[in-house]
Amino acid sequence: MMNKEKFLKIFNDDKDIIDKKVKSYFSPDGILEEAMAYATGGGKRIRAFLYLECKKMFSCNLCENDYKFALALEFIHAYSLVHDDLPAMDNDDFRRGQPSTHKKYGEDIGILTGDALLNEAAIMLFQLAKDNDSYIKAGLYILQRASRFGMIGGQVLDLRRGASYDLDYLLDVYKKKTSDLFKAACVSAGLASRVSKEYLEKIEIFASNLGLAFQIQDDLLEETYEDELNILNVMSKDEAIVLLDKVNKRAKDSIKDFQNNEVLSYLIDYLSSRSY
Ligand code: GRG
Q: Which tens digit of pLDDT belongs to each residue from 80-103?
C-alpha cells in the first residue's frame, strides 16, 4: 500500500538521480554552457518523474537511455521557462527563487540558452532513436507535444488572449501549455514500452487531466491574478475546487486498471495538496 513516506522516497530518489545527471551533463566552460546548466539546475522534475514512473509501470525496468529521455523532457521544459521569463513574454526577473536566466546572463544569452536547450533535447531524442527504434515514435510524440500544436500553440493563445476570456478558452490554453508536456512524458513512456493503443489512450487521459489539475492548483495558490490567466477569473474558489476534484477523479479512473499504478495514483493527490 502506498503512503506519503514511500511516495516521497520514490519522488525524491528520482529527483536526485535527474539532478545529478543534469549536473554532470554540462561542463560549464563557456557562457552558453554555464547558462544552460543554470537554467536546468532546479525544479521539481515532475516531467522526468512522470516519464520514469510511467516506464516503470509499463515495463518494470529502466535502462540508462530512459534517463536520457527524462533529461530531454526536462530540457524542453527548462527552455520553455527561460523563454517565458523573457521581457517579450512574461517578463519575470525571478524563477525558482533565483534571478531568471536572462537577468543573470543577459537577454541575448537567455534567448540562445532556450534555443540551445530545445536543440539539445532534439539531438538526444534522435540519438536515442538511432540506437533503439522503439524510441522513434516516442521522440516524435514529444516534439509534437512541444510544437505549435501543443505547448508553443498554448503560449501563443495565452499571449494573444483578450482582457476577458471564458472557461473554454482558459482550458484550451492549459491543455496546450501544461498538459501537453505532461502527455509528452507519459505517452512517450508508453510508446517506448510498446504498449497497446488502449493503454496509450488511457495514459493520455491520465496525463491530460493531471496537467489540468496541476495548473488549477497553481491558480489556487497564486496570490495576485487579476491581470493573468487564472481560473479564479472565470469561477469562484469553491467552484474551482469542485472542478479540481472532478479532474483528479478522471485522472485516477483512467489508470485504475493498470497494474502497479500506486505511484502515479498517489501523485494525483500529492500534486493537489502541494502548497508551492
Ligand atoms: C515559451 C514556448 C514557450 C512556452 C512557454 C511553460 C510555459 C510555456 C510557460 C511557463 C509559465 C507557465 C505557467 C506554464 C505552465 C506550466 C507550468 C506550471 C510550468 C511550471 O512548471 P513546474 O512547476 O516548474 O513543474 P519547476 O520549476 O518545478 O520545474
A: 999 999 999 999 999 999 999 999
